[in-house]
Amino acid sequence: MIHSDRQDLSEVLQKYFGFDTFKGEQRAIIENVLNGHDSFVLMPTGGGKSLTYQLPSILMPGTAIVISPLIALMKNQVDAMRGFSEEDGVAHFLNSSLTKPQILQVKEDVTNKKTKLLYVAPESLNKQENIDFLKQIDISFYAIDEAHCISEWGHDFRPEYRKIRPVIEEIRRAPIIALTATATPKVQHDIQKNLGIPDARVFKASFFRSNLYYEIRPKTNPESQIIRFIKENTGKSGIIYCLSRKKVEELAEVLTVNGIKALAYHAGMDSPTRSKHQDMFLMEEVDVIVATIAFGMGIDKPDVRFVIHYDIPKSLEGYYQETGRAGRDGGEGKCITFYSYKDIQKLEKFMQGKPVAEQEIGKQLLLETVAYAETSMCRPKVLLNYFGEILEKPCGNCDNCLNPKRKFEGETFLVQLLETIIHFNQLYKGDHIANILAGVESSAVKSFKHNELDIFGSGEGKNEKFWNAIARQALVHQLLEKDIENYGILKITEKGKAYMTDPYSIEVSEDHDFDDLEDEDNLAKAAGSAAADETLFKMLKALRKDVAKKKNVPPFVIFQDPSLEDMATRYPITQDELVQISGVGTGKAAKYGKEFLELIKKYVQENDILRPQDMVVKSVAKKSVAKVFIIQGIDRKVGFDDIANSKGMTMSELLSEIEVIINSGTKLNIDYYINRVLDEDNVEEIYNYFYEAETDSITAAIEEFGEDFSEEELRLVRIKFMSELAN
Asked: Into how many domains does the chain fold?
């Protein structure tokens, strides 16, 4: 039974939730709620926010109304609460997933005072019939979970959340507790203002989680890097976030064909499929979920060991909350993000056409993300500063701490930046000040005629990226802050004013420059070009010669030189890996692969070769529509000219496609067509030539036969020859 008397809180904690002690400020928050005061709770993912409203709901008379944005999250929380009580009616949810009889049951339990917690979606809260019902019941307090959804500056803004306050006023005022895992000072201000709780007591837990490792990687062959990373962490649970549904599905498919247990999750899927995929992840039937940001809010899986962002997120709040799903049990949590400035430009393009105010907000949030991605400072330090918290020492557990960049003395540059901001009466944003110092004639600079001033271009010959980096350092050292009402405008703090009068040494790290990695040629240079292992190549050629002798066929029938070179570069040691080699299909791998794989495997072991695993990533099998059409046409004995015409190909192009199909190991019988265009004797003559030739080169065959046969005829017989002997 639920007791309404206020027992010792530790006893209640042990009795209903099975914990011996409170975490952080949980007790203080609960006491504030029990005393009928408004509360604002900022607590990172895994910090125990839910308990701060679940426990007081048990002790207080009436029903607590919990406003929550996701149906899946509500179901999890209700199931958890029912687990703590003998009475199933102790917790219910009211949302669009319920049938009419189920809604009646919920209302009956609430009316009969069985229900201590009622979870409501914001959309359901706005329905007049629900407002009329809630007016009739005794409400202990309102809990607004995921409160950042209220703010237009929050990463999950939902307009329905901004209607919560008027609805509460219509139903009946009761204490409010607003909770979120991510909120900058700007978002916090916005939430309190909108909910009408400016005097709420604010509880803020530290956002620093020492078990999380943060790393930003250039977005070079991300699929290969991801597969390699997951295979190095076999059996560990992880989430991969992508911005588009299409990329989610593509990446999940690529992971699956590479032997990784992965499923997709996005809002475009039907509800039963989403629920099934989420449950399979929670029950460890799959290791990896590839998802849009629709996945994860409130997911209670403590042992997620890695969170990978395939695309850079739109805001640091979203990023922090998503990475926060790693290592909630205090164990290892790796947070890897792939970054390319081209992705930022794509996101900026998506903003076009939206209202100007929304574009401005989106642009500022993206600027923060770019600053974080490109910085060479301690990453948790930058993140925590964004949330208004100071990390005194570097974390020692991020890519920048473990691989530090060169540093230089920043004192002169910081003073110059602050003086420039003062010169312009603290009225402009960081990028505008950076453009003035760097001498960049942006449209804003020209419109204010700042390019005509003496100060324009006075920034020591440094570019705007450099000055933006100095501004970021000034923000982190609290010499500057961003105006909350006019977000992005730089204001000098008291500490900054003191610094201008009496400056001191501040070492500044050089920022990572990802621009050099944007160009494909530079990427190739950076990665280095893979070269065939000459020793192995010679051994493979010798083996090919032996096999050819045994089979009584020319060596090129077994594997062509480019295929052997590829093997000597990629070291395939399994049938699956061999199929990925250029010019080797399933048929050819099955027919000739065994001896070659044994040779390569032995060579790799004896020479202790570290194979480039990222080179053996399988692509999703996608025979082009044209290839499938050609194979089906040949199976139905359709004339080659008809196949070529229907696909808009020349005969030469069609033969090239057929040669690719044959060289990959697919067997085709084209006798029906050859017999139409060549005499049997001629076919035999050309066939015997290829049987005895050193090479399958058509140029060499033309030299041999002169004008007796056309190139097309020679190619046709070569296709027949390769299909019959090689496959």
From this structure: 5
**Co-location of 362 and 414 in the same domain:** no
Residues 222 and 184 in one domain: no
Give yes or no: residues 71 and 198 share one domain: yes
Comparing CA positions, the residue from 389, 343, 335, 336 lying closest to residue 366 is 343
Tokens standing for residue 607: 């020479």
The two tokens of residue 244 are: 């588009």
CA–CA gap between residue 702 and residue 301 (Å, rounded): 67
| pLDDT tens profile 540-561 | 999 988 988 888 878 878 888 8
What's the CATH number where 306 sits?
Answer: 3.40.50.300
**Domain region containing 256:** 212-392
Q: Which of 704, 341, 356, 669 is nearest to 511 (CA)?
A: 341
What pTM value is reported for the model? 0.59
Residue 126, H or E segment: none
Identify whether 3 is part of a domain: no
- Locate 428 and state its tokens: 């402009």
Q: What is the CA radius of gyration of the chain?
A: 33
The CATH number of the domain holding residue 563 is 1.10.150.80
Choose the final residue of a domain: 455, 478, 510: 510
* Torsion, CA 24, CA 28, CA 31, CA 33, rounded to 10: -90
- Across-strand partners of 472? none
Same domain? For 27 and 94 the reply is yes
Rounded CA separation 366/580 (Å): 39
Same domain, 224 and 175: no
- The CA dihedral of 227, 229, 231, 236, to the nearest 10 degrees, is -120
Q: Kindly tell me if the per-residue pLDDT of 517 is higher than 50.
A: no
My answer on whether 241 and 372 are in the same domain is: yes
Residue 433 has pLDDT above 60, yes or no: yes
Per residue in 262-300, pLDDT (tens digit) is: 999 988 888 889 889 988 888 889 999 999 876 765 566
* pLDDT tier, 48 (very low <50, low <70, confident <90, very high otherwise): confident
Res 518 pLDDT > 70:
no
Q: Is residue 249 part of a domain?
A: yes
Phi-psi region of 413 (alpha: psi -120 to 50; beta: other; left: phi over 0): alpha
Residue 452: which residues within 8 A CB-CB, separation 6 or more? none
Residue that terminates a domain, selected from 204, 220, 252: 204
678 phi-psi bin (left φ>0, alpha ψ -120 to 50, beta other) = beta
Cα–Cα distance for residue pair 268/664, rounded to 1 Å: 37
Q: If you average pLDDT over residues 193-207, what whole number do you get?
A: 90
CB 645 within 8 A of CB 630: no
- Give the pLDDT band of residue 646 (cuts 50, 70, 90): confident
Give a yes or no: residue 587 inside a domain. Answer: yes
Q: Percentage of residues in the chain with pLDDT exceeding 90?
A: 32
Instruction: Please check whether residue 652 lies inside any domain of the structure.
Output: yes
Hey, what amino acid is at 72? A
> How confident is residue 412, by pLDDT bands cut at 50, 70 and 90?
very high
Rounded to the nearest integer, the mean pLDDT of the chain is 84
pLDDT per position as a tens digit, 12-45: 888 887 777 888 889 999 999 999 999 999 987 6
State the CB neighbour count (10 A cutoff) for residue 367. Answer: 17
